[in-house]
Amino acid sequence: MIFIARWGPKGFTVSPSLIVPFNGFSTSLALKADSENDTSGTAPSNTRGRELRPINFETVYVAAAGVDPRDQVAQWEAQLGNSYPLYIGEKRFGPPKMTLTNVSVSDVQFTSTGQWISCKVALTLEEYSEGKTSALTTKSTSSSSSSSSKSKSKSGSSAAAKKATADYKATLAAKKAAMNATASKSDKAQKKTSKGA
Q1: Residue 38: its pLDDT value, please?
Q2: Phi (first) and psi of residue 6, to 5 degrees
Q3: Which of 113, 103, 115 is nearest to 68 (CA)?
Q4: Could you say which of 3, 28, 59, 168 is the most buried, measured as most Cβ atoms within 10 Å of its Cβ?
Q5: Whose CA is closest to 85, among 100, 98, 102?
Q6: How much is the pLDDT for 42?
Q7: Distance CA 190, CA 185 (A)
Q8: Whole-angstrom Cα distance, residue 97 to residue 147?
């Protein structure tokens, strides 16, 4: 079978027995830049590589054209988060892997018994990135590192308190020893007498 476009297990084709069009294709490529506040003139910007490339397209599934629209939607939804290269014709388009990030279903038509006659499916792919993590992962990582730093600070303050106490005791012992060394014999005798009493 000849495909107009393919992404992983999903394909788009037009043949006498099967019609799955590939419509509304769009993509963009943009630089990633930070703006700086500058009151002396034009605000400078720091270019930091480029943004991840998005690709958008849509298709229409029609039961009379050889497909089950409801089943096709379920198949796309099952692929959410998966990454494959996108081929248009026989050539790969864009980055080596594109991740399915959005599946949007509209214009659904039903029979009187609730069977799907047709539907439009809009799809969004985004360039795959190793370093990109979900918000949930980032949140749990930051909370665990926060609790870890809190426990470290608690143990650190406890150790500091113990050290201060030890230093204080050592200072008292040193002063006591110095006083004993400089005390006269009569003072020492008086101290013993008072202890005996």
Answers
A1: 61
A2: -140, 145
A3: 115
A4: 59
A5: 98
A6: 65
A7: 9
A8: 36
Those residues whose C-beta lies under 8 Å from the C-beta of residue 171, and which sit 6 or more positions away, are: none
Looking at residue 136, its pLDDT comes to: 35
What phi and psi, each to the nearest 5 degrees, are found at residue 185? -60, -40
The residue with tokens 């294709």 is 25
One-letter amino acid of 136: L
Q: Residue holding tokens 């796309």?
A: 76
- The residues, ordered by sequence, that sit 6+ positions from 73 with a Cβ below 8 Å of its Cβ are 61, 103, 105, 119, 121
Token digits of residue 55: 């690709």
**What mean pLDDT comes out for the span 184-195?**
55
pLDDT of residue 74: 98
Contact (Cβ atoms closer than 8 angstroms) between residue 72 and residue 44: no
Give pTM, 2 decimals: 0.60
